[in-house]
Amino acid sequence: MVQPVDVRVFFNFRSPYCYLVSKALFGLLDGYHVNLVWRPLGGWDGRSPPERAKKKVPLARQDIARWAKKMGIPAIPPPITTDPTRAGAVSLLAEECGVLQPYVIQMMMAEWADGLDIGQAEILLDVGARVGLDKVEVSAAMDDPARREQLHANWHEAEELGVVGVPTFVVGDQIFWGNDRLEFVRDHL
């Protein structure tokens, strides 16, 4: 039997471009013999550093507004201080529990459609409950040192591969960077 092709997905919950691809990325599994390898990142990993982001935010917000309008989805930026690390840590729990897809979609909607700070415990607990995660497990996962270390390890893996931003999809030696690159991933598969 032919083994599925690994598609590594480097994803940071703070990225608006990850929001734009959050629903479609799971469609990679439809019709293709692939194994989606989830690689969430935390903090500023995979994103422009804070000093560059200050200059980039106005342009990015214009770009996101255009994309959202074209896609027919809301785009309400969350507070600029939102830290995605906890959301990334809880995504590892969601993956373990078999609810990664609804978790990612719901978390990104909370952040970018509702403009909420997904670094706040009450938001994480609410989204977790909506997708069937246990409240105690979500609370523990948020600040679990092992999960945070996994987020850092994911970034080190990304850097070694040559990943410079998110979302990025890695298939073998091919790197596809950007929310609008899924067609190229499909073509490659």
Explain this structure.
The chain has one domain (5-188): Glutaredoxin. Strand 1, helix 1 and strand 2 (34-41) form a beta-alpha-beta unit. The longest helix is centred in the first third of the chain and has 22 residues, at 50-71. The protein starts with a strand and ends with a helix. The protein is an alpha+beta fold and 189 residues long. A four-stranded mixed sheet has the order 2-1-3-4, with helices on both faces. Helix content is 51%, strand content 13%.
Tell me the helix content. 40-55%
Distance between the termini: 17 Å
CATH architecture: 3-Layer(aba) Sandwich
**Poorly predicted spans:** none
Nutshell version of this structure?
The chain has helices spanning 16-21, 50-71, 85-96, 100-113, 121-130, 135-142, 145-161, 182-188, and strands at 5-12, 34-41, 168-171, 174-177. With 189 residues, the chain is of the alpha+beta class. The radius of gyration is 16 Å and the shape is globular.
What order do the helices and strands come in, and which of them pair?
Elements: E1 5-12, H1 16-21, E2 34-41, H2 50-71, H3 85-96, H4 100-113, H5 121-130, H6 135-142, H7 145-161, E3 168-171, E4 174-177, H8 182-188
Helix pairs in contact: 3-4, 3-6, 3-7, 4-5, 5-6
Task: For the structure shown, list the relevant keywords.
189 residues; alpha+beta; Glutaredoxin; globular
